[in-house]
């Protein structure tokens, strides 16, 4: 699979490129035959500019919707995530992240802000992981769910690139999964953090790919075998 090179001299400089090359970063990720798609926090509170924590992610949501549709066509599990706080959590002081990012307190359970973007189809067979922090793995059963599904490769998209997407992708690798981040289906509030996060992910943790490369990978998958069957790297 081709990857997007986020180490161009125009963005990061030849010296940065040389340092990362010398350190041995940026190898390609092996891709298995049993992927899962993790759609991180594409909820209205992040994808619509009318919410304090949101911005217009129409283009990214559209790309994610294409990914979801293609994943279902190939019987690839779709897992949505959402940040959701109880009133006690949102109003209290027990969650350290909310001391640093108090704007997240608006992401209260059952509110419009935590509802999945309506432009994404949520089927009964899709999984939903509710979380309290940036990573979809921290304090959740996501790793166990992926293992139970027989997953060998995790496709990640969503919002925000520099926050929850990056944290989820890093933890996916640390949980033992080969990880691919789909650039066109990831969004952030500003371009600088978005580009910096993708550069870091491509260098150290995941393959950062375009939408069409991700779709081509899904289209090449063999007929899905039962969970627990042997998977072959592609």
TrEMBL record:
The cross-references to Pfam families, in alphabetical order and at most eight, read:
Isochorismatase
Which InterPro entries does this chain map to?
Isochorismatase-like_dom (IPR000868), Isochorismatase-like_hydrls (IPR050272), Isochorismatase-like_sf (IPR036380)
Q: Does the keyword Nucleotide-binding apply?
A: no
* Origin superkingdom: Bacteria
Under the heading Gene3D superfamilies, the entry gives: Isochorismatase-like (3.40.50.850)
Q: Tell me which residues make up the Isochorismatase-like domain.
A: 36-209
Q: Which UniProt keywords apply?
A: Hydrolase
Asked whether the keyword Transmembrane is assigned, the reply is no
UniProt cross-references to PANTHER family, sorted A to Z = ISOCHORISMATASE HYDROLASE, PEROXYUREIDOACRYLATE/UREIDOACRYLATE AMIDOHYDROLASE-RELATED
What's the protein here called?
Answer: Isochorismatase family protein
Which organism is this entry from? Saccharopolyspora taberi
């Amino acid at each position: 699979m081709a990857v997007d090179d986020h180490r161009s001299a125009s963005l990061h400089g030849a010296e940065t490129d040389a340092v990362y090359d010398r350190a041995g970063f940026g190898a390609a990720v092996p891709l298995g035959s049993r992927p899962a798609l993790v759609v991180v926090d594409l909820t209205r509170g992040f994808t619509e500019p009318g919410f304090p924590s949101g911005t217009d992610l129409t283009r990214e949501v559209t790309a994610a919707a294409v990914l979801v549709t293609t994943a279902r066509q190939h019987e690839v599990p779709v897992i949505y995530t959402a940040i959701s706080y109880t009133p006690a959590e949102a109003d209290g002081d027990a969650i350290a992240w909310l001391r640093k990012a108090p704007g997240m307190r608006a992401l209260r359970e059952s509110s419009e802000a935590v509802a999945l973007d309506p432009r994404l189809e949520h089927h009964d067979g899709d999984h939903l992981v509710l979380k309290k922090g940036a990573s979809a793995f921290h304090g959740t059963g996501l790793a166990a769910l992926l293992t139970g599904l027989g997953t060998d490769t995790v496709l990640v998209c969503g919002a925000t690139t520099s926050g929850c997407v990056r944290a989820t992708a890093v933890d996916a690798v640390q949980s033992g999964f080969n990880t691919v981040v789909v650039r066109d289906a990831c969004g952030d509030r500003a371009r600088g953090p978005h580009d910096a996060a993708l550069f870091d992910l491509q260098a150290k943790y995941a393959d950062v790919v375009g939408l069409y490369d991700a779709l081509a990978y899904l289209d090449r998958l063999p007929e899905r075998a039962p969970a627990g069957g042997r998977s072959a790297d592609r």
